[in-house]
Amino acid sequence: MQVRFHLPGQSIIKPKTPRTSPERPSSAAPSQSDSYVRFGANTAFKALWRNHLDRGHVHYEKRNYTEALRAYYQAKEFLDDTDTNDDNDHLITLESQGNACSALGRYEEARRHFDLALELYQPQGRLNDPLGKARTQTWLALMLINSGNNWDEAEQLLTAAEKTMNPTGKERGVFQKKLYPYWADINTGLGKIALNREEHPTALAHFREALATYNQQKKPANFHTLDLKHLLAKTHYQIAVNTDDNDDYEKAYTASEYWVARTEDELDLLLKQHPKSTFLKSTMEQLADLLEAQNKREKAQALRDQAEAMEKDSPDEDTP
Prior knowledge:
This protein is mainly α. Helix content is 71%, strand content 0%. The chain has helices spanning 32-61, 65-80, 87-103, 107-118, 130-147, 151-165, 171-178, 180-196, 200-216, 223-241, 246-273, 278-293, 297-309.
């Protein structure tokens, strides 16, 4: 979307020119039939944009990020061919492209998409949507965390989004029910930042809040809750190995074992639905490392063997 600006001091009123003869209608002026044709073209391009966008969302939910990104880029091409210039349509497309690029590890490309999306909001752009901006900030922050860079910037973005999405009083329950995925994402991101800084109690608090948010919605097993249960197991184990108090060690170690078991349960359910998922394969390998650290070598090796047996490349599912 291009916006034309006038330079300071530049007049936007064209100077009048003397008429030497009666003016004839310009041949460039669109006729009624031309307008109908353009309206039909815009309608067709908009439908094709929505079709490709929806197809991208289906691929994304199946963790097929390569095909998702291809569909999102095709959607963007059709959107650019319309004359509507709907900022919300461009926003949805840019966010979708950013998330798919982030899932594929194409972080610089993802950053460009998210930055362009943020420019659509006020004061730079025309969109007055604080909740939408908080959502975009959250996704940008998660991308920065996944890339392992810019932890401070990620924290600033998540803190700003948290203030927007965390009302008080009677509105809180209804508000978070509507926006629970983003609220869970905010807490997951803040927890990962705290874990990276070895601020374990803070990390645990955020991971528990994120998991409780999903559990309140009574959602079935999914990749998000699997990740959170693994993070809780990992955080409790790090607390155990970093304490000199025997009682604290036992509590933390027992908690870690509990969350390992919950992770294994959820992993089994998800493997039945996504037997070729390389995301699950990666989770299995990380869980095996944790089991190895807990001196459960047989279980760790069995999990590694199971992960190794999975197909490395799948036409249906990519690595997030």
